[in-house]
Amino acid sequence: AAGADIKDSATAFFGGIPVATAEDKIRAFGSVTGRVGVTTGAALFYAKGGYAWADNRLSATVLGATVIDESKVHSGWTVGVGGEYMFAPNWSAKVEYMYADYGSERYLAALLPPGVDLGLTTHSVKGGINYHFN
């Protein structure tokens, strides 16, 4: 799990003055995955997959007043590939790519019945150094 500040926003202007702003922001996300791979010497190449979730917030302001502030937890799945290399006794470095589809949730149902379905997906690349306790 990780905190996040992944967002997209749009602002409407009237006569050069901002009058309305909408923002869609992933505030945290995480996954629980398993991986399977093959080794060759000190290298491991693997594929991974499992459950993914994201805490998303949709908000809007008009003339500085908040008119929408709605949060939902999206649940979905993730898949990825990676490689890890043992560069010293007990130490390895890794890099991996992960795609996550967090599914959709319904927003704005009270304002615009029956609401609007909003889906979330992310692509991420991670790197790391690991210490292996033996």
How do the helices and strands follow one another from N- to C-terminus?
A: EEEEEE
Question: Which whole number gives the mean pLDDT?
Answer: 94
Structural class: mainly beta
Main pleated sheet: 6 strands, antiparallel
Query: Main sheet: which strands, in order across?
Result: 1-2-3-4-5-6
Helix residue percentage: under 10%
Radius of gyration: 20 Å
Distance between the termini: 26 Å
Q: What is the total tally of β strands? A: 6
Fraction in beta strands? over 45%
User: Outline, from the CA principal axes?
Assistant: elongated
So how many helices? 0
Describe this structure in words.
The structure is a single chain. The protein is mainly β and 134 residues long. 0% of the residues lie in helices and 85% in strands. It has no helices and 6 strands. It has strands at 2-14, 17-40, 43-62, 65-88, 91-107, 116-131. Strands 1-2-3-4-5-6 form a 6-stranded antiparallel beta sheet, with no helix packed on it. The radius of gyration is 20 Å and the shape is elongated. The mean pLDDT is 94.
